[in-house]
Amino acid sequence: MSLRDALRIPEWQVTDEAVHAARRGFLQTLGAAPVLALAGCADAEPPAAPAATVTPEQARSGFRTSEALTRIEDVTSYNNFYEFGTAKNDPSQAPKTLKTSPWTINVTGECDKPGQIGLEDLLKTSTSEERIYRLRCVEGWSMVIPWMGIPLASVLARFAPNSKAKYVAFTTLADPKQMPGIRYRSINWPYREGLRMDEAMNPLSFLATGLYGKPLPQQNGAPVRLVVPWKYGFKSIKSIVEIKFVERMPETAWHDLQPSEYGFFSNVNPNVDHPRWSQKNERRIAGTASKLFAERIPTRMFNGYADQVASMYAGMDLKKWY
Ligand SMILES: Nc1nc2c(c(=O)[nH]1)N[C@H]1C(S)=C(S)[C@@H](COP(=O)(O)O)O[C@H]1N2
Ligand SMILES: [Mo]
């Protein structure tokens, strides 16, 4: 779908779809000129993380919510997974081509026990749990999703990160044979994301392998994807094939495209607008109403997870480290 097509859409969709189109159309139209990074670039390091002061009870209170769940039909048909195309329903074709078994994750970098882990082994040797999290996309829509999976910290600990491991970098599979969207340069493939070590070890950080009690559908990032619910959705990288412990802040896919618009931290923050749209509200796709009738609600600081994560950012200027 072209930018023009995207704008020729029904009234009810125009705001979010226009934002979405603007987001991905930016490079093709204006973005060819280099944009200077304002912050979050790899050669500026943020202040060291303060010791977190979150109790186990506070952490656990973030693991579920009583808010209405997003219907599984919407969770699996309204997706961002540019490896399969940039339209919201393109990724629902992913089951036709993406082969998720066998699947191996390579773990490398600053750790004492680098190696490979097969997804079957990971599942066999871990206890899966359910997390019901809000997911807030930078485009201004949100969902409530019941995930199944494994706390990220427990997986990372197996590889014994060393004292030089300050960040964790994640990479998605980039196979043009399985992922038809790869032939378009919407992203500088492979899709890459990263977390600071303390963020990765936070109890909320989760590796999802299922949703609604079923194995993760391809369109949602099968067989294993990151979920970091206090950050904009693009941090929740799908179909992970590599995890690397690194000393310097790693480059990430959206930062690479538009450093002035997508920072490394990308914490949900209603007080820091995207340069081209407001982040004060979101369209909540949940409950019995489908995405066609989503309600507008105020966006909360850290997507409502301030009790669990705010202490990691004490003393940091979140306008600078967006
Ligand atoms: N590899 C990869 N991961 C990705 C994306 C992508 O295009 N490619 N899109 C991100 C964005 S922008 C969002 S909002 C979430 C959407 O997750 P969902 O489709 O499961 O709701 O996935 C994120 N992870
Ligand atoms: Mo997103």
Automatic annotation (TrEMBL):
Domain Oxidoreductase molybdopterin-binding: 97-254
GO molecular function (one): oxidoreductase activity, acting on a sulfur group of donors, quinone or similar compound as acceptor
Keyword Metal-binding: yes
Catalytic activity: L-methionyl-[protein] + a quinone + H2O = L-methionyl-(R)-S-oxide-[protein] + a quinol; L-methionyl-[protein] + a quinone + H2O = L-methionyl-(S)-S-oxide-[protein] + a quinol
A matching Pfam family: Oxidored_molyb
Signal peptide span: none
Maturation and modification: Predicted to be exported by the Tat system. The position of the signal peptide cleavage has not been experimentally proven.
Residues holding Mo-molybdopterin: N79, Y82, E83, C137, T172, N220, R225, S236, I237, K238
Tagged with keyword Oxidoreductase: yes
EC code: 1.8.5.-
Cofactor annotation comment: Binds 1 Mo-molybdopterin (Mo-MPT) cofactor per subunit.
Keywords: Metal-binding, Molybdenum, Oxidoreductase, Signal
GO BP terms in the entry: protein repair
Known cofactor(s): Mo-molybdopterin
Role: Part of the MsrPQ system that repairs oxidized periplasmic proteins containing methionine sulfoxide residues (Met-O), using respiratory chain electrons. Thus protects these proteins from oxidative-stress damage caused by reactive species of oxygen and chlorine generated by the host defense mechanisms. MsrPQ is essential for the maintenance of envelope integrity under bleach stress, rescuing a wide series of structurally unrelated periplasmic proteins from methionine oxidation.
NCBIfam families, per database record: PRK05363.1
HAMAP family per record: MsrP (MF_01206)
Quaternary structure and interacting proteins, as annotated: Heterodimer of a catalytic subunit (MsrP) and a heme-binding subunit (MsrQ).
Protein family per UniProt: Belongs to the MsrP family.
Record's protein name: Protein-methionine-sulfoxide reductase catalytic subunit MsrP
Protein species of origin: Pseudoxanthomonas composti
